[in-house]
Amino acid sequence: MNTWIKNPLAILAENAGGGIVVSGSRIVELVAAGATPRAEVDETVDASRHVIIPGLINTHHHFFQTLCRAHPAARDKELFPWLQALYPIWSRLDRDMFRVGARLAYAELLLSGCTTAMDHNYMSYDGLEDATDIEVQEAQALGIRATVTRGSLSLSKKDGAIPDDHIVQDDDTILADSERVLKRYHDTSDGAMIQIALAPCAPFNVSRHVMRESAVLAETYDCRLHTHLAETVDEEAFCIETFGYRPIDWLEDCNWLQPRVWLAHGIHFTCEDCEKLGRHGVGVCHCPTSNAVLASGFCKTLDLEAAGSPVGLGVDGSASNDSSNLMEEVRHALMVNRLGYKSAERITHRDALRWATTGSARCLGRSDIGEIAVGKQADLAMFTLDEMRFSGNHDPIAALVHCGANRADRVMVAGEWRVMDGHIIGLDIAGLIAEHSAAARRFS
């Protein structure tokens, strides 16, 4: 079936004022303003009220943390004290809580216009051994594209780290399960709906052996690698004290200074670090809201891009962002970067949208998503400008960012409508909120 999404109010694509034609899971034609499709059309969707952008792509999250929003134990703290407050709470997580936390995070992302979700889950332990499987199942149930990571913790309080002893795993268990989920779920084909990445948590809670062997598995199974790095000055001090060198040197020592890798946060990099990362094609996920909430610092997005690093966007865990809304993150990225670079001209709304689309796609190693173009996957987010906040705008695409769009009216993933009229098809949102809220109360 060929579907013509016709005459949008605005569209983030060149020469597509008349809309786009979707066939199967792909975009097959861009229609110029005033023209009609060359292909025969089976269905027409009137998009005259809609601003169409590529589906947003999230490149860093912790789904289970939706159960800890605005938790009083962690409010008004920076990263290390924040982790010290929350790990004892997170250690009570069970499978049912984990599943509903993932479901709500996927749903919230989807409603914000996100078509590819990513989760950095490191909570895999006795009783939650199938965490990766759960996240794959929940993504498939909602029809959202996902990069699910098999994360890990291998160092705990007994080793001088922060996590409770019972929520870490030994190196052999981590690596064996990493290979299991790669074999079972990782799809390297064009248009893949599920991909697996390997994601040891951070320098201060995983062994170098896990890092190095994960890099070997990534080469074997052609997958991506992800970890937190250079998020705080405390992390830098830890690396110097423990390893005798800075975080980027730890990355290199672990054989992770390579194009398969994308990092979360990447705040405390020098200009020389940025050049080194760029030379090796290492990507960085910018998490502006989380960085602000935890007062972690400012990511050198423009410097990293200029050096050659892909820069993507992520909402990060809800306990440090308190929202899984990627469209809101786009706006925050614009504001934070203008403050950080002290310039209103160097960072535009299109830069922020680029980070959340093509930049994020590059971080995930994908060339089939993130852009409205012929041959790309039909992943689309469509917003209306009917609310008071948009009244009087003179540029619909800029208005999405400047005026604070936060909920898509329609979302298409791989050519299938997943959100219609602001609602996820087939999902009982009220029931999900009630179940999720009940689970969150167990963390009180």
UniProtKB/TrEMBL annotation:
Transmembrane segments: none annotated. The keyword Hydrolase applies. Keywords: Hydrolase. Its EC number is 3.5.4.32. Signal peptide: none annotated. GO terms for molecular function: 8-oxoguanine deaminase activity. Residues 51-417 form the Amidohydrolase-related domain. The keyword Transcription regulation does not apply. It comes from the Bacteria. Belongs to the metallo-dependent hydrolases superfamily. ATZ/TRZ family. This is 8-oxoguanine deaminase.
